[in-house]
Every structure is written in structure tokens, then in C-alpha cells.
Design goal:
heterodimer, A: 216 residues, mainly alpha, Rna Polymerase Sigma Factor, Chain: A, 9 helices, 0% strand, globular, B: 243 residues, alpha+beta, five-stranded antiparallel beta sheet, 5 helices, elongated
């Protein structure tokens, strides 16, 4: 957990960034976003649970495959993520964010927890594929949820070096030391690209911090 | 151009590298959640969807059913806690009334036992306290075009399953009924083995609960080896009612 000294450490590094120039993406098209199923899941409706799985399982498994060392581990992680999402369904607040965002936030937290608990690292081979938004095997672009599709579009508008660092860190779970060594830039520059890229992405997507009560 | 907020930048860095050994997600508040949500969407965008293997689909479906059964138990307990405090003055007469109704119904059904099973089901259905639940198809491909219903009487601890569209199994397998009891923790109660001869005709099967059922919250039919199992792995759930 970063403490106050961590924030103080970056305070003197004030520099101008170009977030004012960041294009703002259009808001997610609500008509393309299906009605959330989590309220019905909170009531224990098996049809809603089944529909939720059909809607989200490939997206969650895609992320788990990136973070886990083996297919078996990714399967365990996927099940763990869904069970936690169902148990947290009562805390979902549609006014605070979408169902997809709620689920993917749980998924990333859970994958981080698992990786730390198991002391495992993602497969190193992925590092060689970094720097692109290449489709994964079995991927179906049409299957992307509206919010994820917009995130993908927004990532394509980031500076290439920012996108590259975020791909290695967020998409593959690489450390800043590994990223620095892999692409040959100083550690400070890796961190700078990461934080500015994320902030710019948040601005483009218009993601708000509204209603912490909707936290997974 | 505006100056960056150093606190926001520190948070963003902490969130991007939260997976590192020495790191952790910052505490909620002050913009953390928005950045965390952004990071999660970006991670999903980088990863993209990957087709889930069939065995994982089955695992997830079974986990979903287990969650729903557990949720039904929790909701039943909450409801019971609100409406019928244990040991209340009103609870004893209601209990005795339930016992009396069960005895009467048992005699009625016993007299009716020689009737064809369709008539037995109709008789039970006509009683005041019988519950009727429609089947919903389960996730297993062995479900066929299953439809039909469950009729269950708590008072007599007796009931019938009615199916149409459930394909017959090979000789090494049987359908097995499971009853999710809202008053009982642990695995569902075995409701008996049965087979189906013709998917195109109505099949009516009596329920044979292995234990008394306190509060039947759901009925689940799985495919199991010929002799049945004590606890189902729920690899092939073909029909669900009541959840």
C-alpha cells in the first residue's frame, strides 16, 4: 500500500502533460449495452446466472489466460472471479458504472491477488508480443462489450509508447523493471508513460469515481 | 495545458503496477476507483475474449447452480427469521396444524395409491398445499428439449416429476433427482433415480426423497452412472425447477 511518502516522492516531479489535448471519446452507446443481470443474480435467479456466464465468460477467460501461467490455473481463476462477482452482485449499482466494468474490476483484483498469493508470474513468452492490440486466438471482435470496445479505441489513440507500457503492465502483468529492460527505456520513463497513459485513458473514457458504494 | 496533479499521478502509477510483489491497490476514495475501473477496462481490451473450453463451461454452470442453491437457502433463512420466530406462541399451533394436514393427506394419497400415476399426480395437484414448479432446461447438452413440471407436497413429503422432450439415456446412465432443502446445509437431498423411455411422450416419475425435506427450494435433475451417486459433481444438469 503506498503511503504518504510515496506521494511526496513524486510531488517535486511536476511536469506539464498533454491531457488537455486528449480527445474525449463518445459515451458508451446505452442501446448497445444489454440490461444488467446482477440484480437478478443477487436474488439467486439461475437463468440470470446462466445468461451472465454466456455474456461474460469469454472476456473473463481472455484476461485470466493473460495473467495465469497455465490453462488450468486460468480456469480456476475464471471460476473464482465469477463466484466473487455473483456474491458481490448485491453491491452493484448501475448508476455508478456498467456491469462489465464492475466484473472486470473484480477480475483484475482477483488475478492480482492470485498471482501474489501463488508467487507466480505470467508466461514470459507474451512479452515478445507486446506493443500491439493484436487479436488473441479464439477472439471475436464482435463479442467485445461496448465499454471494452471503447477502451480499445481509446488505447489506439494513446501515444505508442504509453500504449506499449500499459499493454505490458496491465495486459500482461509485467513489472516496471521488466518493461524497462524489455524495451530499453529508463525506469522513470516507464512509470511516467504508465501513469500519464492511464490518466489520459480515464479522461478519454470519461470514467468517473461516482458512488464508491458501487465498488465491487 | 494544465499542470498534472501529483497525487493523481501517484495513484495512477500505483494502480498500473498494483500486481508487483511489493505493491498493493491504494485504498478507495479520491479518484482511485475511476482509475481502477479504467485499468480494468484497458486490461480487458488488451486481452480480448478467448473461447471458454467446454469443461470450464460445465464447471461454471455447476458453480452457478451451487451459488443459486446457497442463495435460496440464505433467502429462506432470512425470510424464516422475519416471519416465524422459533418458539413463538403462534408457531406451535401452526406446527400441529401442519402435522394434522399431513396425516389427512397421507391417508388420501394412500387410498389413491392404486390409481394410475397420472391420476395420483392429479390428485396431489388438487390438494391445497401442493406446489407446482416448471422445469427450466439445464446447461448439459443431454437436456434435449426438456419441459414439464414438478408437483410437490410438503405436508405429505410426496411429489411427482413430469417430463416431455428429455431424451432417453444409454443403459449405463440414469437421471437422478436432487432436492435443495432450504432448511438443510450441505449437499442437496437425493430424490431418486429414473429413466425415460420416450422423449416424445409424457413421463411421470414419483419423487423418492431419501431424507425428510424441510423446505424444498429447488429440484435439479442430473445424469449419473446407472447406480446413482451420493453427491453429484453436477457435470450434466439437464433440468432445474424452483430456483
Amino acid at each position: 500500500m503506498p503511503d504518504a511518502s510515496a506521494f511526496a516522492a513524486v510531488a517535486p516531479m511536476r511536469v506539464l502533460i498533454d491531457h488537455d489535448l486528449a480527445p474525449v471519446m463518445r459515451a458508451p452507446d446505452r442501446k448497445r449495452m444489454p440490461l444488467p443481470l446482477l440484480p437478478e443474480i443477487a436474488a439467486g435467479d439461475p437463468a440470470a446466472v446462466d445468461a451472465f456466464l454466456k455474456r461474460h465468460q469469454n472476456m473473463v477467460f481472455g484476461l485470466a489466460r493473460r495473467f495465469c501461467r497455465s490453462a488450468e490455473d486460468a480456469e480456476d481463476a475464471t471460476q473464482e472471479i465469477f463466484v466473487e462477482a455473483w456474491k458481490s452482485a448485491g453491491r452493484f449499482d448501475a448508476t455508478a458504472g456498467s456491469e462489465t466494468t464492475f466484473l472486470m474490476t473484480i477480475a483484475r483484483r482477483r488475478l492480482i491477488d492470485r498471482a501474489r498469493r501463488q508467487g507466480r508470474r505470467p508466461p514470459t513468452a507474451l512479452l515478445e508480443d507486446a506493443g500491439s492490440l493484436a487479436e488473441q486466438p479464439g477472439a471475436d471482435r464482435a463479442e467485445l462489450h461496448e465499454e471494452v470496445r471503447l477502451a480499445k479505441e481509446a488505447l489506439e489513440q494513446l501515444r505508442p509508447e504509453q500504449r506499449h507500457v500499459l499493454d505490458l503492465a496491465l495486459g500482461q502483468g509485467r513489472t516496471h523493471h521488466e518493461i524497462s529492460a524489455a524495451i530499453g527505456i529508463p525506469l522513470g520513463t516507464v512509470k511516467s508513460h504508465a501513469r500519464r497513459g492511464l490518466i489520459r485513458l480515464r479522461e478519454m473514457l470519461g470514467v468517473e469515481d461516482r458512488n464508491e458504494g458501487g465498488t465491487p | 495545458m494544465s499542470e498534472p496533479d501529483p497525487r493523481l499521478e501517484a495513484l495512477a502509477e500505483a494502480i498500473v503496477f498494483a500486481h508487483e510483489a511489493e505493491a498493493a491497490l491504494p485504498a478507495p476514495g479520491g479518484g482511485v476507483l475511476a482509475l481502477e475501473r479504467t485499468a480494468a477496462l484497458a486490461a480487458a481490451a488488451f486481452a480480448g475474449p478467448v473461447a471458454v473450453p467446454e469443461r470450464l463451461q460445465r464447471r461454471l454452470a455447476a458453480a452457478g447452480l451451487a451459488f443459486c442453491a446457497e442463495r435460496a437457502r440464505e433467502l429462506a433463512k432470512d425470510g424464516a427469521g422475519r416471519t416465524a420466530p422459533r418458539g413463538s406462541a403462534r408457531g406451535i399451533p401452526m406446527f400441529l396444524l401442519g402435522v394434522a394436514a399431513g396425516i389427512v393427506l397421507w391417508f388420501v394419497l394412500r387410498a389413491d395409491a392404486e390409481l394410475p400415476i397420472e391420476r395420483q399426480r392429479d390428485t396431489l395437484l388438487a390438494t391445497r398445499n401442493a406446489t407446482r414448479l416448471q422445469w427450466k432446461a439445464g446447461p448439459s447438452p443431454l437436456r434435449g428439449l426438456v419441459e414439464g413440471d414438478v408437483v410437490w407436497s410438503h405436508d405429505s413429503q410426496h411429489g411427482f416429476l413430469r417430463f416431455r422432450g428429455l431424451p432417453p439415456l444409454d443403459d449405463d446412465h440414469r437421471f437422478q433427482l436432487w432436492i435443495v432443502d432450504g432448511n438443510r446445509d450441505g449437499a442437496p437431498v437425493d430424490g431418486g433415480l429414473f429413466s425415460v423411455a420416450d422423449a416424445g411422450a409424457d413421463t411421470i416419475v414419483p419423487i423418492r426423497a431419501a431424507l425428510p425435506i424441510g423446505s424444498a427450494k429447488a429440484f435439479v435433475v442430473t445424469v449419473e452412472p446407472r447406480g446413482g451417486v451420493v453427491v453429484s459433481k453436477q457435470e450434466h444438469v439437464v433440468a432445474i425447477a424452483g430456483l
